[in-house]
């Protein structure tokens, strides 16, 4: 599992465009680290940068070229891009290329890493649950599974329904948890800090709510049961309100997870940026510049400790609310 994490960080560092800094765009340069970057060829954009700067130097415009691109990703060629039809143009990840292209981002590296860590971490759990024998990781993960079943999914969904949805809820929990925790390591990326990732997870919950409810109650009965017993004149208004609430529930899941993970990273990056912001006021002495660093680094470490706790809490909240929303859709009386 550690090798998977280190490999994901190495691939991200090597195969994504790097950032350049300037005094005018210090904060924007640092905050670019929370924005997804496309996966490019071997070596990231180092070769691209060298070629551009050498050519600019030959024409006497190297400084202008560096200033124009400070704090931004260089437009290196994505390692993988797939053509998209025109109606999916909103997902175009390669605007410099003609047409619409779906590209692979550094987020996908850590999403795949999370899946690999789940497979590795839980490989010994079935044997441990059957025989009681296993390594420390298997015991830890088995304890997580039993806790999720007994204290989260079953109380929220009931015993019968939880038996059907337990594997799905476990996958949601651990997938989010591993993505959140991996995002705390240096040179890593947090997929859940992208609203596209949290939106896809929320859409899965929303689809399960609608499809599960329609299967359990019937297509017409599902929408009919959205509205409780009210006077007939109020039924159209209540139907609109309940339908809106049905959509807003997964939307809240999407925004909560995205905003929490992004906000934590922005706080840490802000404290680190203050080192470079206040550095010039300490004079030209490197010692004076470093003297103000411990305070901001200390604040950053403190926030990182809180983020480690939040990473686990957000996985718990997303799974708990998904369980409640799905259960309410399948059993409207709840």
Instruction: Tell me the total number of β-strands.
Output: 2
**Element order: H for helix, E for strand:** HHHHEEHHHHHHHHH
Domains, number = 1
Residues in β-strands, percent: under 5%
What characterizes the major β-sheet?
A: 2 strands, antiparallel
Mean pLDDT: 79
Number of helices: 13
Low-confidence stretches are 44-74
| Cα radius of gyration in angstroms | 24 Å
* Helical residues, percent: 55-70%
Structural notes for this entry:
This protein has about 325 residues and is mainly alpha-helical. The model is unreliable at about 45-75 (pLDDT under 50). It starts with a helix and ends with a helix. It contains 13 helices and two strands. The chain has one domain (about 1-35, about 105-330). The longest helix is centred in the C-terminal third of the chain and has 44 residues, at about 235-280. Strands 1-2 form a two-stranded antiparallel sheet. Helices cover about 70% and strands about 0% of the residues.
Brief summary of the model shown:
By secondary structure, this protein is mostly helical.
List key phrases describing it.
single chain; 334 residues; mainly alpha; two-stranded antiparallel sheet; 2 strands
Outline the secondary-structure elements.
Elements: H1 2-15, H2 26-31, H3 46-59, H4 62-69, E1 81-84, E2 100-103, H5 106-121, H6 125-131, H7 136-157, H8 159-182, H9 195-217, H10 219-224, H11 235-278, H12 286-291, H13 293-330
Antiparallel strand pairs: 1-2
């Amino acid at each position: 599992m550690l090798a998977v994490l280190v490999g994901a960080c190495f691939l991200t560092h090597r195969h994504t465009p790097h950032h350049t800094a300037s005094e005018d765009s210090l904060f924007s340069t640092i905050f670019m680290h929370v924005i997804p970057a496309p996966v490019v060829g071997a070596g990231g954009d180092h070769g691209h940068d060298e070629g551009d700067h050498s050519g600019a130097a030959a024409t006497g415009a190297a400084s202008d070229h560096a200033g124009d691109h400070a704090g931004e990703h260089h437009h290196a060629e994505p390692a993988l891009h797939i053509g998209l039809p025109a109606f999916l143009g909103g997902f175009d990840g390669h605007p410099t290329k003609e047409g619409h292209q779906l590209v692979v981002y550094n987020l996908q590296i850590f999403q795949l890493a999370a899946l690999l860590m789940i497979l590795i971490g839980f490989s010994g759990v079935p044997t441990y649950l059957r025989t009681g024998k296993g390594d420390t990781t298997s015991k830890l993960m088995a304890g997580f599974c039993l806790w999720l079943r007994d204290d989260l999914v079953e109380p929220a969904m009931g015993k019968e329904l939880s038996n059907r949805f337990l594997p799905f809820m476990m996958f949601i929990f651990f997938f989010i948890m591993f993505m959140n925790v991996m995002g705390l390591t240096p040179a890593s990326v947090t997929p859940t800090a992208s609203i596209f990732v949290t939106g896809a997870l929320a859409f899965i919950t929303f689809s399960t709510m609608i499809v599960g409810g329609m299967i359990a109650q019937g297509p017409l009965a599902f929408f009919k049961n959205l509205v409780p017993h009210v006077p007939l004149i109020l039924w159209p208004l209540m139907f609109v309100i309940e339908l809106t609430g049905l959509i807003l529930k997964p939307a809240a899941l999407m925004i909560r997870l995205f905003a929490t993970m992004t906000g934590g990273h922005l706080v840490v990056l802000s404290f680190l940026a203050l080192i470079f912001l206040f550095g010039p006021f300490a004079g030209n002495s490197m010692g004076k510049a470093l003297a103000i660093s411990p305070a901001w680094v200390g604040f950053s470490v403190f926030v990182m400790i809180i983020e480690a706790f939040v990473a686990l809490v957000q996985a718990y909240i997303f799974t708990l609310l998904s369980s409640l929303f799905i259960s309410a859709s399948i059993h409207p009386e709840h």
